[in-house]
Input
Amino acid sequence: MKAARVFRERKIVGDDAFVEMVIWHVPQPVLGSTHDYKYSLVLIIGDDCALRYDNERGKGDHRHVGDREIDYDFQSLATLLADFWIDVEACLNEHRDLQRPVQ
Output
């Protein structure tokens, strides 16, 4: 079996923000993971990667929130996507809160 793309989507989520998600079904788990998926889910705000969920080879499942890298407990694709969208909403709200009106 070869790797097969399960899902790919790019979605605009704000004036200066977009999400890009790619999920692959792989013949065997990526080193560090226990499931048969390789994924990269990213939120870009402006020119910065504000949020990223991935399972980079050797690191296993984790997420990047700003400069922090945090382990992620992969349960299922549905849970992965739900968790990612919860964090996307939180990041977008935080980004909006940091913007100050021009005076």
